[in-house]
Amino acid sequence: MTTAQAHRTAAKHHPRRIALFGGSFDPIHSGHLSVARAADRRFNFDEIHFIPASRPPHKL
């Protein structure tokens, strides 16, 4: 088995845990990071992606 095959096999049995954190982040501050860290501690994510909203509905 090649290394690439081993990675594909492992990925099938252990999917990556990816968090999507949306918000205006204008600007990003310690509160945003604190929430992301708390979620990571609770759910043990492999990745956390911050997704900025171009026009948040509560700020129209």
Query: What is the first-to-last residue Cα distance?
Result: 55 Å
- Determine the mean pLDDT: 87
Instruction: Show unreliable segments.
Output: none
Based on secondary structure, the structural category is alpha+beta
Largest sheet: 2 strands, parallel
Order of helices and strands: HEHE
Measured by DSSP, the beta-strand proportion falls in 15-25%
Q: Output the number of helix runs.
A: 2
Helix content: 40-55%
**Number of self-contained structural domains:** 1
Q: Order of strands across the widest beta sheet?
A: 1-2
Number of strands: 2
Question: Which term fits the overall shape?
Answer: elongated
Q: Gyration radius, to the nearest Å?
A: 16 Å
Tell me what you see in this structure.
- Strand 1 (18-23), helix 2 (30-43) and strand 2 (47-52) form a beta-alpha-beta unit.
- Helices cover 42% and strands 20% of the residues.
- It is α+β, with helices and mostly antiparallel strands and 60 residues long.
Keywords:
42% helix, 60 residues, 2 helices, 20% strand, 2 strands, two-stranded parallel ribbon, alpha+beta
Which helices and strands, and how do they pair?
Layout: H1 3-13, E1 18-23, H2 30-43, E2 47-52
Compact overview of the structure:
This protein is an alpha+beta fold. The protein contains 2 helices and 2 strands.
